[in-house]
Amino acid sequence: MESIQATLKQTTVADIVQRARSQSYGQRLSAQQERRGKDSGGILVPSAFQVPNEIIDEGWLRELGGAEVKVLLFIIRKTFGFNKIAGDRIPLSQIITGAGLARQSAVSAIRVLEQCELIRVIRGKSPDGTRNINFYQLITRQDYNKTK
User: pLDDT tens digits, residue range 84-101?
Assistant: First the structure.
C-alpha cells in the first residue's frame, strides 16, 4: 500500500492552474491591454447570486487570474444566478461584454477553466448555423448536473 501512495503525486490547485495556463495562453496580452475594458457603471441592487464554497475553500480564487475569475463569475451568474443549474447556452460575445475582456483573453480564460475542470463546455451552433453558441456548465464537487 505504501508503494502505491508513494507513486501518487499530490497535485495542488496551483499546479493544475499553472499547467492549464501554460497550455492555453499562446500569446498573452500586455498588462495595459488587460486593464482596458468597459466601465460597466451601474448601481448595487438588493439581489445576488451564489458562488459555490469550493471556489474559495479549495484555493481556486487565490490561484486563478483576473480574466479567469471574471469569466467564471459570469458563467456562475448566467447559470446558477438564473436558476439554470444544468447550464446554459451563452454566446462568446456575451461573455466578452459581461466580463469586460478582449476576445483573446476570454477564450484563453475559458480554456483554463475547462482544463482545470471548473466548467464543462459543450460546443454547438446557433439554430440557423451561422454562429457558435456553446453550452456552459459549472462543475462542482457536488455536481448539481447529476440530478437534472
Answer: 878 888 889 999 999 999
State which H helix or E strand residue 20 sits in: helix 13-24
In the numeric block, the cell 482596458 is attached to 36
Q: Evaluate whether residue 3 is within a structural domain.
A: no
Domain that holds residue 142: 12-24+53-146
Q: Which residues pair with 119 in a beta bridge?
A: 138
List of residues 6+ apart from 117 with CB closer than 8 A: 139
Q: How far apart are the first and last CA of the chain?
A: 38
Q: How confident is the model at residue 18 (pLDDT cuts 50, 70, 90)?
A: confident
| pTM (whole model) above 0.70 | no
Quote the strand ranges of the chain, DSSP E. 88-90, 119-122, 134-138
Q: pLDDT confidence of 37, banded at 50, 70, 90?
A: very low
Q: Percentage of the chain surpassing pLDDT 90?
A: 28
CB 96 within 8 A of CB 49: no
The CATH number linked to 108 is 1.10.10
What is the Cα–Cα distance from 25 to 38, expressed in whole angstroms?
Answer: 22
Q: Identify whether 127 is part of a domain.
A: yes
